[in-house]
Amino acid sequence: MFFDSFSSFIQMGNHGFYVWLCYGIFAVTLAVNFISPMLTRKKVIKDIERQLRRDQK
Amino acid sequence: MWQALTRLYHKLGSPKWFYEISGRWMPWFLIIGSALTAVGVVWGLAFAPADYLQGNSFRIIYIHVPSALLSQSAYIMMAIAGVVGLVWKMKMSFIVGKVIAPIGASLAILALLTGAIWGKPTWGTWWVWDARLTSMLILLFLYFGVIAIYNAIESEDMANKAAAVLSIVGSINIPIIKYSVEWWNTLHQPATITLTKKPTMAPEMFIPLVFTIVGFYCLFAVWVFARTRNEILWRERRTNWVKKLLTLPAANVSKVSANEQTELKGADK
Amino acid sequence: MNALSIFKRDLLIAFRNRGELLNPLMFFLMVASLFPLAVSPDTQFLGKIAPGVIWVGALLATLLSLDLLFKSDYDDGSLEQMLLVPQPLMLLVLAKVAVHWLVAGLPLALMAPLLGLMLGLPAGGFEPLILSLLIGTPILSLLGAIGAGLTVGLKKGGMLMPLLILPLYIPVLIFAASAVQSGVDGNSYIGHMAFLGAYLALSIVMAPIAAAAAIRITTAR
Questions:
Q1: Long-range contacts from C181-187, C-beta under 8 angstroms, 24+ separation
Q2: For chain B, which residues make up each domain, given as ranges?
Q3: Where are the domains of chain C?
Q4: At what angle do helices C160-184 and C126-151 cross, to 10 degrees?
Q5: Is B261:B51 a contact under the CB 8 Å cutoff?
Q6: What is the pLDDT of residues C129-181, one digit of tens each?
Q7: Is the pLDDT of residue A36 over 70?
Q8: Shortest Cα distance from B186 to chain A (angstroms)?
Q9: pLDDT grade, residue C186 (50/70/90)?
Q10: B170 vs C154, C160, C167: nearest CB
Q11: Distance CA C92, CA C215 (A)
């Protein structure tokens, strides 16, 4: 470990705000890129099923 | 050999083949990508030594550089997909190109935000018109253009081709834009440290960067596969293989066989 | 229908609507006037930003005039006709772009010295200003044709075309504005003009091809 204690790890020698803000935005980007296609998939499947049901009538 | 290539060419054009192959490959890319990224991030945050001049803020590099690299190469991939689609009239190629655009844009935004935030402790302001950041901003504009044209044209076929032309024109301009912006920057900025100075980094600082770069690329593959699969399902919804995949006679996903259920749920998480 | 006849026809149509020709010029003048109004009329200050302001104004004026490049031909079906004639579409596009430049770009270049005077451009800037506009506005028309071709026929396309083309304009803006600045500072601007000339050569060759491809895609029924 480069840091002596957990609190110095969070502090990052005064730059903590910037570093953690960046990694936070990174986490959000990851989340969006994972969750968006998952939600779209559910929607697509639902739409297809709805269309098939309508076609069968 | 030639036969194998032509077979591969035909397979690549088949949405069904892509759907099946991507379903098998996605878990691997996901595992490897997550592992590499996690190792790189933890190493870079907690174990790498602080930079002599920038202190701990340099740790932002482990996010900034991979996202910048990836958003640039993603645009090129999108343009190549456009060429392949236009020249070989491959539907799949257009789908991949369409899907890359929003992912590439999100990475460009990540690169811009992390670059700007990194700039604050380094330069004192929230934004600098540094050559790399400015080029990245213009790249984002190029991405917006491609996304906008997909949204504006209603006919799917027309939208595919128009976006392909636009991404090709954009990619030809990228080197010109980069050259112009770098040249412009030398006029106006004093030659100080750039935000990234890879060659002079010690190995303990450089290797985690390699991890995160490769990890990002693997995750990029996962995201492209996931979105492409959604497009395939929708565009091929009237084919038998899709109908079989989604609905058995009972038209109820929970009654799908165990195999297909794991394929549906597990393959693209 | 061939390139020459389209050239003549477009020129004739443009001169019949002489009032329309003034619009980009008036816009150019107005945009340049916005800056002293919005920021400061101080001549020293204006002189510093004049190269950039004049060039941005020219860029925006060109963008506005590009909307109509293919529109009327699309509406009356002659664009479709152009797809069918034996002459290569890129030559026909080149003819239309040439008229657009003569009618929209060239006047901007000729009017620029007036704006230079109004914005306190120092003496050394005038020659590179006119030169950069003479070389640069054809580039704007050529690249603009690509955007116009991609968005012709889109009803909601109003803001889309500038969005598509502006990134491509940025190299022109950078080198042209800094050429003028270089002239103001008393330095040589030959290198800047060389870049612009190269970009122009590249555009003359590539832009009509891309614009023709775009028109084929968006006009096909």
A1: C181/C51, C181/C125, C182/C128, C183/C124, C183/C125, C183/C126, C183/C127, C183/C128, C183/C129, C184/C47, C184/C51, C184/C121, C184/C122, C184/C124, C184/C125, C185/C124, C186/C124
A2: 27-191+202-225, 236-269
A3: 3-219
A4: 170
A5: no
A6: 999 999 999 999 999 999 999 998 887 767 899 999 999 999 999 999 999 99
A7: yes
A8: 27
A9: very high
A10: C167
A11: 11
Neighbours of chain C (3+ CB pairs under 8 A): B
Task: For residue B213, give Cα distances in angstroms to B41, B62, B253.
Answer: 10, 8, 38
pLDDT surpasses 90 at B227:
yes
Q: Does B31 touch chain C (CB under 8 A)?
A: no
DSSP secondary structure, B124-151, as one string: SSS----HHHHHHHHHHHHHHHHHHHHH
Is the pair B, A in contact (3+ CB pairs within 8 Å)? yes
Q: What's the predicted TM-score (pTM) here? A: 0.87
Residue B129 has pLDDT above 50, yes or no: yes
pLDDT, residue B14, reads: 87
Number of residues that this document lists for chain A = 57
- Is B169 near chain C, with CB under 8 Å? yes
Number of H helices, E strands in chain A: 2, 0
Q: How far is CA B51 from the centre of its chain?
A: 29
pLDDT at B131 over 90: no
CB < 8 Å to B141, chain C? 163, 166-167
Q: What are the b/e assignments for C52-61, b being 16+ CB within 10 Å?
A: bbbbbbbbbb
What is the chain C residue with the closest CA to B168? C210
Q: How far is B99 from chain C (nearest CA, A)?
A: 19
Please check whether residue B218 is in contact with residue B32, taking contact to mean a CB–CB distance below 8 angstroms.
yes
End-to-end CA separation in angstroms for chain A: 66
Query: Least CB-CB distance to C217: which of B148, B161, B168?
Result: B161
pLDDT at B18 over 70: yes
With an 8 Å Cβ cutoff, are C167 and B187 in contact? no
CB C219 within 8 A of CB C80: yes
Report d(CA B199, CA B193) in Å as an integer: 13
Q: Does C220 touch chain B (CB under 8 A)?
A: yes
State the pLDDT confidence band at B258, using cuts at 50, 70 and 90. very low
DSSP letter string, C36-50:
HHHT---HHHHHHHH
Residue with tokens 């614009």, as numbered in its chain: C211
Which residues in chain B are contacts of A33 at CB distance < 8 A? 103, 106, 219, 223
Burial class, B128, CB count within 10 angstroms (exposed 0-12 / middle 13-18 / buried 19+):
buried
- Per-residue pLDDT of B167-221, as tens digits, reads 999 999 899 988 888 888 877 655 444 555 444 678 888 899 999 999 999 999 9
